[in-house]
Amino acid sequence: MQNLRIFIEYDGTDFYGWQYQPNARTVQGEIENALEQLLNAKIRIIGAGRTDHGVHAICQVANFHTSSNLKLHQIKKGINSLTEDDVYIKDIDVVDNDFHSRYSAKTKIYHYYIVLEPSPLKLRYNWFVKHKLNVTKMKKVIPYILGEHDFKLFSANNGKDNTVCTIYNMNLTEDNSHIIIKIEGNRFLRKMVRGIVGFIHDVGRGRFSPGNVKEVFNSKIKDIYFAPSHGLCLVEVKY
Question: Of 11, 14, 52, 150, which one is the catalytic site residue?
C-alpha cells in the first residue's frame, strides 16, 4: 500500500467547492470519480484545505492510499484523461505512510486579486471594485491581523470549533489597476480570507478604520462583509 500525494490546479468557477457532495460537482468528487475508474476501487482523497464554491487553486495538495501497481506517471496521466479541463494534476509523488495533506501542513498561502478597472477577461479571477479605495489606509490593517487571534467573526464558522488561527505573513501590493492581498497562516476557517479582505476593502472605502479590527476580535463589530469567492486563490501549501 502506497501513500501518494498529488498537486492540483483548478478553476473553481464551476465547482461547488472542494469537498465531496453527492449531488453537486466538486473538485474532490471529480478526482475521486477518475480514480475509481482508473484503479477500479473506491478511493477517498484527503485535501490540504476545503476551498469554497468558486475559489481557485494554483497548487492544492491531496493524498490517498492505493495498492495499485500502476506507475506514478500512469496514474497522473490517467486522472487527467478522465477529468474536465478545469482541474489538472500537476505532479504526483510517494510520501511516508503517516503523511496527511491537511494535518501535516505547516502553513497555507492564499492570494486575493482585485481589479480596479473594467476588464471582461479578468472578471473570472478578480473582484472588480468600481469605487475608489484608500490603499494607504488598507495597508494599515495588516499589523492588526498578524499574529494569533480568534477569527470567528471574520469567518462563517458556527462557533462550535476552535476559531483561533495564526497569521504569519501578509502584504498588500498595488499598481494602477490591480491590488493583490497575500496572506499566510497556519490554518484558515471557512470564508476567513474573504472576511479579512472584505474588511480591508471596507476600510479602503471608509466604512471602518484600521483599528476597528480589534473590535471585530472582541465581538463588538459583527457585520463583516465577505469579499466574493472568485478573487481568491490557494497558491501554496507548505510542509
Answer: 52
Q: State the pTM of this model.
A: 0.94
Instruction: Report the alpha-carbon distance of residue 207 to residue 1 in Å, rounded.
Output: 55
Q: 55-105: per-residue pLDDT in tens?
A: 999 999 999 999 999 999 999 999 999 999 999 999 999 999 999 999 999
160 Cβ partners below 8 Å, 6+ apart? none
CA atoms within 13 A of residue 114's CA, in its CB half-sphere:
25
* Sign of the alpha-carbon torsion through 27, 154, 179, 170: negative
Distances (CA, A) of 5 to 62, 91, 165: 6, 8, 25
Q: What are the structural domains of the chain? A: 2-95 (3.30.70.580), 107-238 (3.30.70.660)
> Looking at residue 24, what DSSP letter applies?
B
52 among known catalytic residues:
yes
Q: For residue 146, what is its C-alpha cell?
A: 498578524
Distance CA 51, CA 232 (A): 9
* R_g (Cα) of the chain, nearest Å: 19
Q: Residue 42 and residue 202: Cα distance in Å, rounded?
A: 46
Q: Which of 30, 59, 206 is nearest to 135 (CA)?
A: 206
Q: Read off φ and ψ for residue 29, nearest 5 degrees.
A: -65, -40
* CB-based contact 52:227 (threshold 8 Å): no
